[in-house]
C-alpha cells in the first residue's frame, strides 16, 4: 500500500465489466492498451487507444500505434482490423512534413467533435523533443495534421466548441528550469483556426491539487454542463521509497484522476478544484496487475442525456477501465471545495 493512502471520490462507481478493453481484443500485435480518447456520435461510441506491442525489456516495446474501436453501449468494444494512426506508416509520416528520422511514436490520443468535425490530439516523440499534435479526420483513415507544438508539451485536450469565437485547448508544457525539479501544470491557449495558438494562460498548478506533488495536467476533453466545464485531470505524486512495481525495476510515481470546474464563457476562470482524488488506484487491475501499477490516467469523458458521466481511463498503463458518476455530484464536489477555501 502506498503512502499516503488515497481514496476515490465516493460518487464514482467502477463499472462491473472493468476492464472494458484489453489487448486480447485487438486483432493485430498488442501488449498494452491504455489512454483512450472517446466520443459518442449518433448511436455509436468511438474510441482511439494507445497500443504498445511486443515487449522487449524494462519499459521498451517494439512499437506503439493508435487503434480504433467501436461500441454500441460504451462498454463492449470491437476493434477495427488495423491501427488507425501509426507514426511508422509512410502515409502518416508524410502528413507531418518533418525531416527523415525526426518523427517517433504517436500516442495518448484524445478525441473531440467540434461542429461535426472530428479532431484527435496526441503526443509525438521526435528527435528534438516531445510535441503535442492535432489531427483532423472524417473517417479515421484520411488525416490532416493541423498543428505540432514546440517541445516539450503533451496531454493536449480540445474544448468541444468554440468559445468567444476561438478554439480552446488545455495542455501541459514541461518546464524544467526555474522550478524545483520537474513540476508540471495545466495551461490553456486559444486559436482562430486550430493552426496558430496563443493567449497562453496558467489554469492550475500542481500546488492546487494537494494529493499531487509532481505534476498535474489535462486528462479528458472538457465536458459542458449548465454549471461550467467539467475537466478531468491526472495528478502525480512521487514516493521515493517505492521500488519494484509492475514490469519495471522501479516506478516511483502514482497517478490519480482529479477534477475541476471552469467558467462556461471564460474557461480561464476556475470555479472550483476538487482537492481529493476523483479516482485513486484501488482495484486490483489498478494496483496489482500490469506494466506500471498505480497509474490511473483519464483521457475520455462522455456526458449522457440522463446526467451520467462515463469516464474512461488507462489503468496500470495496461488496460482501459470505466467509472460512472452523476455530473451533478461531481460539480457539487468542485463547488463545495471552492467554498471551503
Ligand atoms: C506519462 C505518459 C502516459 C503514461 C504515464 C504513466 O508520462 O507516458 O502515457 O500513462 O506516463 O506511465
What is this structure, in a nutshell?
By secondary structure, the chain is mostly beta strands. The protein is 7% helix and 47% strand.
Polypeptide structure, described:
There is one protein chain. This protein has helices at 90-96, 284-287, 327-339, and strands at residues 13-14, 32-41, 44-57, 60-71, 77-79, 103-114, 117-126, 129-137, 143-148, 153-158, 167-173, 186-191, 198-204, 215-218, 223-225, 228-238, 253-262, 270-273, 296-303, 308-315, 319-326. The model has no long low-confidence stretch (mean pLDDT 96). By secondary structure, the chain is mainly β. The protein has a single domain, classed as Tachylectin-2, Chain A, CATH 2.115.10.20. The protein is built from three helices and 21 strands. Strands 14, 15, 16, 17 and 18 form a five-stranded antiparallel sheet that branches. Strand 12 (186-191) and strand 13 (198-204) form a beta hairpin. It is globular and about 55 Å long. The longest helix is centred in the C-terminal third of the chain and has 13 residues, at 327-339. It binds beta-D-mannopyranose. Residues 35, 108, 255, 292, 295, 297, 314, 317 line the site of beta-D-mannopyranose.
The largest sheet is: 5 strands, antiparallel
Ligand set: beta-D-mannopyranose
CATH domain class name? Mainly Beta
Described by its quaternary structure, the protein is single chain
| Percentage of residues in helical conformation | under 10%
* CATH topology grouping: Tachylectin-2, Chain A
Mean pLDDT: 96
Question: Which ranges are low-confidence, i.e. pLDDT below 50, for 5 or more consecutive residues?
Answer: none
Count every helix, treating DSSP H or I runs of 4 or more residues as helices: 3
In the CATH classification, which architecture applies?
5 Propeller
Shape: globular
What distance separates the N and C termini? 30 Å
Give the SSE order as H and E letters: EEEEEHEEEEEEEEEEEEEHEEEH
Assigned CATH superfamily = Glycosyl hydrolase domain, family 43
Name the beta content range: over 45%
How many DSSP-defined strands?
A: 21
Q: Rg, please?
A: 18 Å
Amino acid at each position: 500500500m502506498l503512502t499516503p493512502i488515497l481514496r476515490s471520490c465516493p460518487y464514482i462507481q467502477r463499472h462491473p465489466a472493468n476492464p472494458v478493453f484489453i489487448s486480447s481484443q485487438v486483432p493485430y500485435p498488442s501488449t498494452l492498451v491504455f489512454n483512450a480518447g472517446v466520443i459518442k456520435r449518433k448511436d455509436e461510441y468511438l474510441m482511439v487507444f494507445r497500443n504498445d506491442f511486443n515487449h522487449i525489456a524494462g519499459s521498451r516495446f517494439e512499437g506503439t500505434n493508435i487503434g480504433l474501436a467501436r461500441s454500441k453501449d460504451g462498454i463492449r468494444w470491437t476493434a477495427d482490423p488495423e491501427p488507425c494512426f501509426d507514426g511508422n506508416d509512410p502515409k502518416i509520416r508524410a502528413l507531418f512534413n518533418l525531416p527523415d528520422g525526426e518523427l517517433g511514436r504517436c500516442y495518448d490520443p484524445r478525441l473531440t467533435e467540434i461542429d461535426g468535425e472530428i479532431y484527435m490530439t496526441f503526443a509525438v516523440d521526435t528527435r528534438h523533443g516531445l510535441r503535442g499534435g492535432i489531427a483532423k479526420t472524417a473517417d479515421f483513415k484520411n488525416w490532416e495534421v493541423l498543428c505540432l507544438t514546440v517541445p516539450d508539451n503533451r496531454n493536449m485536450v480540445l474544448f468541444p466548441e468554440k468559445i468567444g469565437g476561438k478554439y480552446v485547448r488545455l495542455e501541459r508544457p514541461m518546464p524544467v528550469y526555474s522550478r524545483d525539479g520537474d513540476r508540471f501544470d495545466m495551461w490553456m491557449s486559444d486559436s482562430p483556426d486550430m493552426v496558430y495558438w496563443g493567449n497562453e494562460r496558467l489554469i492550475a498548478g500542481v500546488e492546487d491539487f494537494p494529493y499531487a506533488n509532481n505534476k498535474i495536467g489535462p486528462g479528458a476533453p472538457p465536458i459542458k454542463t449548465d454549471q461550467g466545464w467539467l475537466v478531468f485531470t491526472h495528478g502525480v505524486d512521487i514516493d521515493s521509497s517505492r521500488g519494484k512495481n509492475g514490469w519495471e525495476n522501479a516506478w516511483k510515481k502514482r497517478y490519480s484522476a482529479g477534477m475541476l470546474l471552469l467558467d462556461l464563457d471564460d474557461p480561464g476562470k476556475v470555479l472550483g478544484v476538487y482537492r481529493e482524488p476523483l479516482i485513486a488506484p484501488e482495484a486490483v487491475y489498478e494496483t496489482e496487475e500490469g506494466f506500471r501499477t498505480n497509474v490511473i490516467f483519464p483521457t475520455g469523458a462522455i456526458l449522457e442525456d440522463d446526467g451520467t458521466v462515463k469516464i474512461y481511463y488507462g489503468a496500470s498503463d495496461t488496460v482501459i477501465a470505466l467509472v460512472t458518476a452523476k455530473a451533478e455530484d461531481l460539480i457539487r464536489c468542485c463547488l463545495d471545495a471552492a467554498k471551503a477555501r
